[in-house]
Structure to design on (304 residues):
């Protein structure tokens, strides 16, 4: 097996190879959105390794180097960066790429993969572990949104800024507890970030009110079209309920209410994501109708 390297976007031959690999993966994971040739060409690329057997391309693996934000100094093998004809080619490609990254002292490696066990297993054997999941379901209107007595769902927005921040803090408490330990949250800009979010006219923010108090929230916004994201997709996020109000169907009611809004806007699909280690979320979202599309794996070089 021979290898070549490049730092440019994938060539037409490489793009065709990647599209074919993703189409085969789509047979295994029908819920995953397929990218277009154009979105693949626009994918950020910090480096790429190709594998050949003779003159035949048998695999390609690229990455995006991120040096800012909460994900440290990491290399991201995103949807559209990777495809191979066999597990052996996957092993060989990552062996080459990991050596290049280690030489740059890049020790956090992330990869997004279609949610298929056979495609994921080689990466687990290379030292990666499950981190995040993405799920998708069609947007469909709900004629009746069921709520327990004494609860109401209403528009939040800036008038609910204080409650939104408090509920966001509650969400952090849940996500930072064992076994998730999501401890990388920066509090310095929380109020500014939430104000900017709620001022955004493309964001729809709903709250649950009980006896005059806000006890839950959720929001949606349209995602831009990119690799792994279908057109007319909204992201469902910030779904939070105070502990004493969980288990009453309020999360489902919020989701259905936001799905009705998305339907009125002509959206086609709704996406959300969760941590594998947040066991309650990992059980809830598939039961709520979200089919797994992609999973994110992580490896930190240097851990014993």
């Amino acid at each position: 097996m021979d290898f070549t390297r490049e730092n440019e976007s994938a060539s037409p031959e490489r793009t065709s190879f990647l599209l074919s690999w993703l189409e085969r993966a789509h047979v295994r994971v029908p819920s995953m959105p397929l990218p277009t040739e154009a979105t693949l060409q626009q994918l950020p690329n910090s480096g790429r390794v190709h594998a050949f057997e003779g003159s035949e391309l048998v695999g390609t693996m690229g990455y995006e180097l991120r040096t800012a934000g909460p994900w440290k100094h990491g290399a991201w093998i995103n949807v559209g960066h990777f495809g191979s004809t066999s597990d052996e080619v996957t092993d060989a490609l990552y062996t080459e790429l990991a050596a290049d990254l280690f030489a740059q002292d890049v020790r956090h490696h992330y990869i997004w993969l279609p949610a298929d066990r056979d495609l994921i297993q080689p990466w687990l054997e290379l030292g990666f572990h499950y981190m995040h999941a993405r799920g998708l379901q069609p947007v469909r209107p709900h004629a009746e949104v069921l709520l327990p007595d004494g609860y109401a769902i209403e528009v939040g927005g800036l008038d609910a800024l204080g409650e939104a921040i408090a509920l966001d803090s509650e969400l952090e408490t849940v996500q930072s507890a064992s076994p998730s330990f999501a401890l990388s949250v920066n509090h310095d800009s929380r109020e500014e970030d939430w104000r900017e979010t709620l001022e955004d006219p493309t964001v729809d923010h709903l709250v649950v009110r009980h006896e005059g108090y806000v006890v839950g929230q959720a929001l949606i916004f349209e995602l831009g079209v990119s690799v792994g994201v279908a057109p007319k997709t909204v992201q469902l996020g910030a779904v939070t309920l105070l502990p004493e109000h969980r288990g009453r169907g309020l999360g489902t009611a919020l989701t259905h209410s936001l799905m009705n809004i998305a339907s009125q806007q002509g959206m086609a699909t709704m996406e959300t994501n969760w941590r594998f280690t947040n066991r309650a979320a990992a059980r809830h979202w598939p039961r709520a109708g979200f089919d797994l599309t992609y999973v994110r794996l992580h490896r930190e070089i240097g851990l014993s």
About this structure: The mean pLDDT is 93. Residues 12-28 form the longest helix (17 residues). The chain has eight helices and 13 strands. The helical segments are 12-28, 37-41, 87-103, 117-125, 161-176, 190-199, 250-264, 279-287.
